[in-house]
Design brief:
disordered N terminus, 13 strands, 3-stranded antiparallel beta sheet, alpha+beta, 8-stranded antiparallel beta sheet
């Protein structure tokens, strides 16, 4: 049967399916290009959109700092979209349920995360929002470490329905135990769809509150490119005993030792040298405040403080550090340190890189 006929049959089937099954088909269709599991759909990166239709300028710095203080990979655009969803950036907002302030904290939750501050003051509330979301993101990335929900909800599955960011958002809205109860983002049938729609809206809104650097096209012409040649190997957030965190914090390119490694985009080198299990590594800070990380290099061509262009050689691939063979391990981070990783593929694609 030819592909045109298959597509016609698939479309006809979709028309007759209930909404929930259609969503299931959509999830299957969102598999990555190499046929691996779906990646975290967040985190396309980029600077916050500030001004009309975006983030009020007085909150930009607070949001950026709250995100960068989290070492688990918290996106500023997610925090910004939460604030818009919760209160429309109104520091005096309240709700009939008793939620208060720009981040809509309930009094009991504020006691835990407010650090004695004023819930009505964004200078206190936004950092508290970041701390709360960071704790949920850490839990979402490794839920098996926690055991504080009622016994009827602690039958933890091996996989959760939703990316770490989506799970954290669901936990912020409904409490983490609701996430465990449904083994992921609660469905539309839970709480009249409040949590389901909360997560869906914030994920969409985060892109509306993000601006790219104007990149388009193949990547190389816009200053952004693949960091090296070669096929993709281990995918982002693959799980297993090979990683101290329990999951893979980047993506791998399967290239032999001595393959040229290039800066993915323009920026400044903030780390160049030995990095423990990462072996020889380079970390580059980009203009949008994000960081790219290149590990297991056999040699380095740059030093700390160097300004680099996208596509500029920064070293050669290798097998230094904790590896089972030569490859390039590549990460995108919200901060320079381990644990602030986000999914590199949507970030690179937003910058025009075909991967």
């Amino acid at each position: 049967m030819d592909i045109k006929k298959l597509l016609q049959l698939a479309l006809a089937a979709l028309i007759t399916l209930p909404f929930g099954l259609i969503m299931g088909v959509f999830v299957l269709a969102s598999l990555s290009d190499d046929g691996s599991e779906p990646q975290d759909p967040v985190l396309a990166g980029g600077a916050l959109k500030v001004g009309p239709g975006g983030v009020p300028r007085q909150y930009e710095g607070l949001i950026q700092k709250a995100a960068s203080d989290c070492k688990a990979g918290l996106s500023p655009s997610i925090l910004a979209a939460q604030l818009k969803q919760e209160s429309g950036f109104d520091p005096k907002a309240g709700s009939d349920a008793g939620a208060q302030g720009i981040a809509q904290f309930m009094p009991g939750t504020w006691k835990t995360w407010g650090n004695g501050g004023n819930v009505w003051d964004p200078k206190d509330a936004i950092p508290a929002q970041g701390r709360f979301m960071c704790s949920l993101l850490k839990r979402a990335k490794n839920p098996a470490k926690y055991n504080d929900c009622p016994k009827e909800t602690v039958n933890k599955p091996s996989e959760y329905n939703g990316s770490p960011t989506e799970l954290a958002l669901a936990g912020y809205n409904a409490g983490w135990c609701a996430v465990e109860r449904y083994a992921g983002v609660p469905p539309a049938s839970f709480a009249e769809g409040q949590t389901y729609n909360y997560v869906k809206n914030i994920m969409a809104m985060s892109r509306q509150l993000t601006v790219s650097d104007g990149s388009s096209g193949s990547g190389a012409s816009s200053g952004w490119t693949r960091p090296t040649s070669g096929a993709l190997g281990t995918v982002y957030h693959a799980t297993g005993p090979n990683w101290s965190s329990g999951y893979h914090t980047g993506i791998d390119f399967t290239v032999p030792t001595g393959t040229t490694v290039k800066a993915a985009g323009p920026g400044t080198v903030v780390t160049a040298g030995r990095g423990g299990a990462y072996g020889n590594q380079v970390v580059v800070r980009h203009g949008d405040g994000m960081y790219s990380h290149y590990a297991h290099l056999s040699s380095l061509s740059v030093s700390k403080g160097d300004a680099v262009k996208g596509g500029q050689k920064i070293g050669l691939s290798g097998a230094t550090g904790n590896v089972t063979g030569p490859h390039l391990h590549f990460e995108i981070r919200t901060g320079p340190e381990y644990g602030s990783d986000i999914n590199p593929i949507p970030y690179l694609r937003q910058h025009g890189v075909h991967i």
